[in-house]
Amino acid sequence: MDQTPQSLLDRLRKSGEPDAWGRFVALYTPILFGWARRLGLGPDDAADLVQEVFVTLLERLPEFLYDPNRRFRGWLWTVTLNKYRERRRRAAALAAGDRRGAVPDEGPDPTDGFDRAEYNRTLAARALRLMEADFRPETWRAFWEHSVDGRPAQEVAAGLGTTPGAVYAATARVLGRLRDELRDLLD
To answer: Which CATH class is domain 133-187?
Structure first.
């Protein structure tokens, strides 16, 4: 199977890609849950909000067109914040006896807890954990020891009984796959 790797976002737009949706949910659940908690929700309400966001994304992502001038993270945050606000309006309406027009204050500043570096770090770390199973153990170990642990390629090669060139090749394969997977998702 010799095909050009596609980003996760590209695969989500295609129908019949359950593996892509599973990967997306595994990548983004911790991020969305963290955002929900920062919005002040308890664990159960945060989990409910995350589910509501995923339902919206399931409907909207197939038609989502990536604009390189805008960030996917920003769009995802907007979807999350809108779902949060909908929940608050529903709760306020119920508390007020379904009084029309009952809208609570807007809540926390939407930029709080929305750090780009933290988002990128969390997403890349999560993607790497998920990708590990896609590589042979020797390839993964060469990549990890060289790139993450920062050990010299010659030292890693000696420990694995291979060449430094094989360590560099393993590192390039894993990092290339990570770039392909997260293209358009990182900012």
So the answer is: mainly alpha
